[in-house]
């Protein structure tokens, strides 16, 4: 073809495309113009005339079970199969199929319910969908295993499932989820240990209280901060209080990566900043912190008495130091709850030694190891009821053995 011929062909193609674009703007195709209507007859007619209209098939899927047709279940299934065949990569057909099932759950067979959950499972891998729908699906099905299998495989997802298990008395599920949650935290923290900034590492660190399962992460954090110290406060004073406290009680280090905390008022409590300055050998700074926080009205906590209580009750956790030999006997009593009993975990020197539900009173015998001072902590794992009211327990007696 000559140069002139090529130019003529290109001009013709351009004119044709321009004309087609103008025609589309002036009179768009019916498929893109017609809105799907929530009327079964209209939708069925629409699909009969336009078999490739998958949005109409999805819409029919969602409303089919609302009808009084004897064949409504078959229609619901057929519309879903047609829509998903036309749009296999879109989530709309599965969403419509499952939404219709959720609103007609008691009318469906076990197979219908199972198929609806199977279709919806792939949508739950989206964190936004999971956090919006996990609770309603659990309330409908009670199936934590399904949610665990279908949701994003992250510590955040597992924490969400724990928040469903505990208020509903699913304590066996909670113990399994707790173990998985601990491992996921370790994996996720390790993955970003050398890439996130020091401040980001602290900001994303799991919240206290900390026990033996968190020790590898605390040690890894301190080692990383030794190489890349904090340059400013990450704005989590309660977390830093707990990390420094745990590190000092268990002789973990190095602590020099936290040095900025000791010279930043408000980055942690005055007590934490003072202990940190002393641990780092910063005597002058320690004196300045002690002088600035010196208040004659201040009463130092007596670690031989229960700390962290709400009046005389445990509302989240409480701890104290006891002189004990091989064991400690505790009697714990329920003060406030709903039909689900409180669930407590008992730690000795940060090791989980006993746990269980308290209904309405329970005696625990907790091993303590060698004779000497031991830190005992009682954690109320499910401090809130389903209706977001407080649970509380009270330690009625403690005897060393």
Describe the overall structure.
The termini are far apart. The strands form two sheets. This protein has a four-stranded antiparallel β-sheet, with no helix packed on it. A three-stranded antiparallel β-sheet has the order 5-2-7, with no helix packed on it. The radius of gyration is 31 Å and the shape is elongated. The protein contains 17 helices and seven strands. With 401 residues, it is α+β, with helices and mostly antiparallel strands. The protein is 49% helix and 14% strand. It has four domains: 30 residues; 148 residues, Serine Threonine Protein Phosphatase 5, Tetratricopeptide repeat; 100 residues, no CATH class; 84 residues, Galactose-binding domain-like (Jelly Rolls).
- Overall shape: it is elongated
In total, how many domains does the architecture comprise? 4
**What CATH architecture of the largest domain would you give?**
Alpha Horseshoe
What order do the strands of the largest sheet run in, or round the barrel if closed? 1-6-3-4
Assembly form of the protein: single chain
List the helices and strands and how they pair.
Elements: H1 3-26, H2 30-33, H3 40-49, H4 54-63, H5 72-86, H6 92-103, H7 110-121, H8 127-141, H9 144-150, H10 155-165, H11 171-192, H12 198-203, H13 215-227, H14 237-249, H15 259-262, H16 270-279, H17 283-292, E1 317-324, E2 327-336, E3 343-348, E4 351-357, E5 361-367, E6 372-380, E7 392-400
Antiparallel strand pairs: 1-6, 2-5, 2-7, 3-4, 3-6
Helix pairs in contact: 3-4, 4-5, 4-6, 5-6, 6-7, 8-10, 10-11, 14-16, 16-17
Question: What's the gist of this structure?
Answer:
This protein is α+β, with helices and mostly antiparallel strands and 401 residues long.
